[in-house]
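Schema walk-through. Below, the input block comes first and the output block second. Nothing else is stored per chain. Lengths vary across the set, and this one has 323 residues.
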Amino acid sequence: MAVVLALIVGTAASAAWWESRYFAQSGPSPVQQTLIIAPGSGLNAIGNALARAGVVENPLLFRLGVVRRGQAARLKAGEYAFPAHASEAQIMDMLVAHRILMHRLTVPEGLTSDAAVALVKADPVLTGDAPVIPEGSLLPETYVFERGTTRAELLQRMHQAQQKAIAGLWPQRKEGLPIMSVEDAIKLASIVEKETGVASERPHVAAVFINRLKQGMKLESDPTIIYGLTKGVPLGHGLRQSELATPNPYSTYQITGLPPTPICNPGRDAIAAVLTPADSDDLFFVANGSGGHIFARTIAEHAKNVVQWRKLQQAQQSAARVR
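--- output ---
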């Protein structure tokens, strides 16, 4: 009897040792495998799905290993990217910890709401319809989400991110700004965003517009004309005199003050630039030909800078024709 008992105990111990070693061994898949575990899947269904995908070799042994470790009820649904040769232990840990595959969507600074919604609609992982989004109500950033997230949910996150950013920046604004509301700050920030792609220039560009508002001058921002004509879609050519003259409620050459709505979705830095602009008396700026701008305090200085810019434009056009 003692011999039989010893054999049973020894066999059980040997089986447990073998199972533990097998559970930790490298798995059969030579490449990363992406697998969706459907909600409501039990241990049997999960083990079979893993075996069909080639992630585990034997679903029965996988189930046995999970049960022996008391984790059968803790496996979670979702989309997983199992590494090449992942062991059953690794797979179980990923399913228990819900280390799912996360997806990313980047909304660049300066996109209109229509363009941002188009990106969201085009993402194949998101689900559901996208609602109409007011202009300037999203925060451009990279957003991380899991499969099954709806388009409406992600757009709501973008809106909430903007509200959170504003809540942090608004109390830090400079005194004496001619900006009475968050809405006005977003409007001006959207203009600053479209006027320069040079991050270091944003506070200086913002200062020019702030100074103009204080003096009751028109902002005279070309992007506002384009927004009024095409809702922000590029014209494909330089502004024409006829387009400047077309009645346009957004054209800050025609209206005094800010446009009726933002003209794009400004980034955090553009909003910060408007609320904490550079210390400057400048009232004008013109392109310098290399992506930035030359600033001026007086109209006479600005006129000289414009002449230099036009000469540079002509030289660039001549060089392009020669090529």
